[in-house]
Design brief:
The structure holds 2 protein chains of 2 kinds. Chain A is an alpha/beta fold. Chain A contains 5 helices and 5 strands; from the N terminus they run βαβαβαβαβα. Chain A has a single domain (2-122), classed as Rossmann fold (3-Layer(aba) Sandwich). In chain A, 50% of the residues lie in helices and 19% in strands. In chain A, α2 (34-44) runs parallel beside α3 (60-69). The relative contact order of chain A is 0.17. In chain B, β11 (144-145) and β12 form a beta hairpin. The chains are: A alpha/beta, B alpha/beta. Chains A and B meet through α1 of A and α4 of B.
Chain lengths: 123, 489
């Protein structure tokens, strides 16, 4: 499965990459902001996206709206420090499939990935 | 009125440069009133010049100029459209992947201004999935047209003559993607990734240290203080000086290693060498030496085979059997040979204990940082929340390492308990065991005070008492020819 990690922090990308590798996902692509993600998504064709909210150039929410606007149904998990309820609702309305608030644990991230993929498979 | 010559009052149409230019020449005395556009056009057409809107406009201008008493009697009426030749296909390297680029020296890890020429990089390492280059297809070009309307054919571009090995693939958009981890090579028109890294000369300042995921073949030798590291085999054709060699699998040195007590040899599989002198290290498999093993400190996980050679000086721990021509030297060089897995495992367990202690300290520090930061609760800034996530992952990683370390420690302790005092001893020396050779076997330390001529076989009986057999002679207690001290006592 092809998974794209979108986060401006290299450390956070590494953390997510480690969890994904342990879960057996090896086809991974990284993007440092929404703009970078949009330019890479065309060729990479992700099957799951882990998306940060606050990033330079293009934030996660703008990416989400643009990407969904292009007709992509790829499951997206928002991985962010934004924990206020209105923000979560805003992201869900924009088309996010799941939500994980920082700080999170390795088990928390892997649990959210599995949960999202199971939901998508059942749908 | 025609284009052929009738006196000197005929309009002439000239086509020059193989259809590149068409010109009209009007005689000075040509009657002005008789020149009109349709007649001029008829002359031009008759000559074969293709008439389009541009040519028609020019003809009008010529007539006007002639009527206005212009001195210019020669006029260009049409020009060809040259063909635009196609561009040749080409390979465009992604920055940093061009194998023809100069080598670079890298900054040392501890000082960003210092350059280490030991860490010079002369090969391009590529990981699977990397976009290394783009293959541009040739273009067809665009045909041109001469003044008569004939097509001037454009020369299509030539294909890029690079051949593509299956280790890389070309996507529909021309992107060339690595299919494995390896060294990028483009030689003899073939672009490929190789799991074999060839060093044509020495590993020295021209190459820098080698750290390669695959096999490394060094045609010559390895100079002082350099390091060759490979996840698979390392093959060295010449002399290795006081260098560091780390191979994930086998090591083969056709000459030898003269390490001056500074060089290190760490081999994940079997090792073969002409000789080893002053080498420290660990060989997980068998070590085969064709000539001498001199003053080395080695731990060998398999057998030590030096059937035609001599093992002189140093300290060698061998888990398996020993086949040697000579043990020690006529000068009585102290030579210690330790037999059995005990020394190997004890050394390993000591390292594991050290690692466990270090991991526990690390874990304590990480947990303390985590607790201090998370005490702020909901008032954490986003950057602090990210730091907490990082700490949570660091703690998880350290815990996993500690678990693995403790599990390995327990397993090795069990093995040592099980094998304690029961290691099988199997030494065969074909020529001689010299004095001051010391064998540590099970619970015994055997020291030879006088030479013992070979062929001699040394082993132990059912009660683990050392014994020997000289040639076809009887099996005798080793106490007959050597001093034996019980190490357990």
């Amino acid at each position: 499965m092809r998974v794209m990690i979108v986060d401006d922090s290299k450390t956070m990308r590494n953390i997510q990459r480690n969890v994904l590798t342990k879960l057996g996902y090896t086809e991974l692509e990284e993007a440092c902001d929404g703009q970078d993600a949009l330019s890479k998504a065309g060729a990479f064709k992700p099957e799951l996206i882990l998306l940060d909210w606050n990033m330079p150039n293009m934030d996660g929410l703008t990416f989400l709206k643009t990407y969904r606007g292009q007709g992509h149904a790829t499951p997206i998990i928002m991985v962010t420090t934004e924990s206020e309820k209105p923000r979560v609702v805003e992201a869900i309305k924009a088309g996010v499939n799941n939500y994980l608030v920082k700080p999170f644990t390795p088990d928390g991230l892997s649990g959210r990935i599995k949960e999202t993929l199971e939901k998508m498979a059942a749908a | 009125m025609s284009s052929s010559s009738e006196g000197n009052l005929e309009i002439e149409v000239r086509i020059e440069g193989d259809g590149a230019v068409a010109k009209v020449l009007i005689p000075r005395d040509f009657p002005k009133q008789t020149l009109d556009a349709s007649q001029l056009a008829a002359v031009v057409r008759q000559r074969g010049v293709s008439i389009d809107a541009t040519v028609e406009a020019r003809l009008q201008q010529i007539i006007q100029a002639f009527r206005d008493e212009s001195d210019q009697l020669e006029h260009v009426i049409a020009e060809s459209i040259p063909a635009v030749n196609g561009q040749d296909g080409r390979l465009e390297w992604v920055e940093g992947f061009d194998p023809a680029t100069e080598s670079r020296a890298e900054n040392t890890p501890d000082d960003s201004d210092a350059i280490s020429y030991y860490n010079r990089v002369v090969y391009i390492r590529v990981t699977e999935g990397s976009h290394v280059a783009t293959l541009h297809e040739p273009t067809e070009g665009e045909d041109g047209r001469d003044v008569t309307g004939r097509t001037i054919k454009a020369r299509p571009g030539k294909r890029c003559d690079v051949r593509i090995d299956p280790s890389v693939t070309v996507e529909a958009n021309g992107r060339i993607i690595a299919q494995l981890d390896g060294v990028l090579q483009c030689e003899g028109g073939l672009l490929k990734l190789s799991r074999l890294f060839e060093v044509n000369g020495y590993v020295d300042f021209s190459t820098g240290n080698i750290d390669f995921d695959g096999t490394v073949n060094v045609q010559q030798g390895v100079r002082d203080r350099f390091e060759v590291k490979a996840t698979e085999d390392i093959i060295v054709g010449g002399l290795i000086e006081a260098a560091t060699i780390r191979s994930g699998r086998h090591f083969d040195c056709r000459q030898g290693m003269a390490a001056k007590d500074r060089g290190q040899l760490l081999v994940g599989g079997d090792a073969n060498a002409g000789y080893l002198n002053g080498v420290r290290g660990h060989i997980k498999g068998n070590l085969t030496i064709r000539r001498e093993l001199i003053n080395c400190e080695l731990v060998i996980g398999g057998d030590l085979i030096c059937e035609q050679g001599a093992i002189i000086g140093g300290s060698i721990a061998v888990a398996g059997s020993i086949r040697a021509g000579v043990l020690g030297s006529p000068a009585g060089t102290p030579s210690v040979i330790v037999l059995g897995t005990g020394p190997l495992l004890s050394d390993h367990i000591r390292k594991l204990k050290g690692l466990a202690k270090q991991l526990k300290e690390q874990l304590r520090a990480q947990k303390s940082k985590y607790d201090a930061l998370s005490a702020a609760g909901k008032s954490l800034r986003p950057s602090e929340k990210e730091r907490l996530t990082e700490l949570s992952f660091e703690i998880s990683e350290t815990e996993q390492k500690l678990d693995a370390c403790e599990a390995e420690h327990a397993q090795i302790t069990q093995t040592i308990d099980r094998e304690s005092g029961s290691g099988a001893v199997d030494i065969r020396v074909s020529k001689v065991i010299h004095s001051r050779v010391c064998l540590r076997m099970n619970n015994h330390e055997v020291t030879f005070d006088a030479p013992l001529k070979g062929p001699v076989t040394i082993g132990s009986d059912e009660q683990d008492q050392p014994q020997f057999r000289q040639g076809d002679g009887p099996i005798q207690p080793l106490t007959e020819v050597a001093k034996i001290r019980n190490r357990a006592a």
